[in-house]
Amino acid sequence: MAYVGIIMGSQSDWPTMREAARVLDELGVPHEDRIVSAHRTPDRLWSYGKEAKSRGIRVIIAGAGGAAHLPGMMASKTPLPVIGVPIETKALGGVDSLYSIVQMPRGFPVATMAIGAAGAVNAALMAASILALSDDSLAERLEAWRDALSASVPEVPHD
Ligand code: RP5
């Protein structure tokens, strides 16, 4: 059963959102990956939001670009924590996505990450850290992942 739902507004978001999927795979966190567009498939958004919790999903990662309404609409529809990933855009560099996702009205939060691939990776780590609160084995794997990243950073720069 998937614990994390990775959703995105378009197939074109997958190269970014796949980074979240990759990190969840590394951490052994089961996830499902779906295209759910706030504008093009609103009925799919509605039913996904209505059913995610009862299907066993615990955290939703939502990536969208431009007029990026998917994370916010999903936060309105589900009590689950929603982590938003602003997709980088050609026209405005992803600032449009960032502002669309981050400026939620009070009452319906979206935990908004950085623009692009860094945001997708961090969304996966944030989802994992939420799940790790009630999963000691995952907490250990997450700590090891972080330690490995720290160990990979050289102390001295090289040419
Ligand atoms: C948004 O529109 C999607 O999240 C995507 O980032 C953007 C462009 O979508 P495509 O025109 O590439 O399908 O809904």
From TrEMBL:
Coiled coil start-end: none
Substrates-to-products reaction catalysed: 5-carboxyamino-1-(5-phospho-D-ribosyl)imidazole + H(+) = 5-amino-1-(5-phospho-D-ribosyl)imidazole-4-carboxylate
GO process annotations (BP): 'de novo' IMP biosynthetic process
Any one GO molecular function term: 5-(carboxyamino)imidazole ribonucleotide mutase activity
Gene3D superfamilies tied to this protein: 3.40.50.1970
Classification via SUPFAM superfamilies: N5-CAIR mutase (phosphoribosylaminoimidazole carboxylase, PurE)
Keywords per UniProt: Isomerase, Lyase, Purine biosynthesis
Binding residues for substrate: 10, 13, 40
PurE domain ranges (all copies): 2-153
Domain of life: Bacteria
UniProt cross-references to SMART domains, sorted A to Z: AIRC
EC number in record: 5.4.99.18
InterPro entries: PurE_ClassI (IPR033747), PurE_dom (IPR000031), PurE_prokaryotes (IPR024694)
Pathway participation: Purine metabolism; IMP biosynthesis via de novo pathway; 5-amino-1-(5-phospho-D-ribosyl)imidazole-4-carboxylate from 5-amino-1-(5-phospho-D-ribosyl)imidazole (N5-CAIR route): step 2/2
Family: Belongs to the AIR carboxylase family. Class I subfamily.
PANTHER family assigned: PHOSPHORIBOSYLAMINOIMIDAZOLE CARBOXYLASE, PHOSPHORIBOSYLAMINOIMIDAZOLE CARBOXYLASE CATALYTIC SUBUNIT
Job description of the protein: Catalyzes the conversion of N5-carboxyaminoimidazole ribonucleotide (N5-CAIR) to 4-carboxy-5-aminoimidazole ribonucleotide (CAIR).
Protein name: N5-carboxyaminoimidazole ribonucleotide mutase
Originating species: Rubellimicrobium rubrum
